[in-house]
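Open question from group meeting: does this chain pack into something compact, or does most of it stay loose? Before anyone orders reagents, we agreed to write out a predicted structure and look at it together. Recording both the input and the output here so the notebook holds the full record.
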Amino acid sequence: MSFRVAVVGCGRMGKLHARVFGEMDQSELACVVDANPTTARAVGKQRHCQALSDPVEAVPLVDAAVIAVPTRYHLAAAEPFLRAGKSVLIEKPLALDAETGRQIVELAHASGATVQVGHTERFNPAVVAMQEHNIFPKFIEAHRISPFTFRSADVGVVLDMMIHDIDLVLMLAGGAVTDIRAVGVNVLGAAEDICNARVAFDNGCVANITASRLAIKTERKMRIFSEQIYMSVDFDKKVGIIIDKTDNLDLIQMAREMDADDLAELAESVDYTKLLKVQELVVDESTEPLRRQAEAFRRTVVDGAPPVVSATDGLAALEVAGDIIESLKAHHWDGQTSSRRGFDVINPGN
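Structure tokens returned:
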């Protein structure tokens, strides 16, 4: 069965989606849409498909659409398709705020259309491999930092970058959020460019999430601690390690049978890391994440498979992101007695 898709928004991500759907078997890139007709024509010519400037024109031509416009336009771009009962893949975050996100969810429910949210990190082969292990986290530490890219400047770092790890943390923790504490700094504009958030869950799990778009290097790492397993994953390099308590029972038993002085004597002669049995995460990099995501979207629309990242999942991540932003705005920079809260725009000219 042919699967006809429109890509709405011909910026960086839209061009990538157009390439992926244009190359997929059993799918047809029917058209691309962009408010700038010149941009739409250029991408349409490159991908040998029709170029349009209004999403409404694309609705009768397709079975589904990819929404890759700037975040503030997600609802407007998706609405014509959803009202027609046609499913959409919406780039992350689902919307600019939770209220708008809920409107998208309600539109989908009313028409029976499916929304998949483009949290592409779910399709990172390292994340796919990570999910194959039965792990119940008690503590999660995530770092996502990079130099400034000059993209997604319409939102702060929480909605731009941290949203990926918020989604992964919610997936892994599996509980309800009970407390959020955050601190952030803005440097280049009114929105935060650096943020750290501590998120607590009702099942005892705690996550510490850091994001920065003002770093001098790129790093996307997560460390997961449970009672049974420690896992460290590098999403950028697509590698990871696992240390399972069961595989290291001999070392644990030896340590428990020795007192502190006996253990101290081993410091001169024994390398602890050599005693550990470390398992490498088995990662399958045969398919790029964006292609995995596109194939999952097709299965949802054509075969009725549940979306990997549903509108509800996207809304949950958006709600937590909103709470993090509100928390960092309320942070007492100089202590509880200070009236200075949140952050102020730094203006070097003044």
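Observations to bring back to the group:
The mean pLDDT is 89.
The first helix runs from residue 12 to 23.
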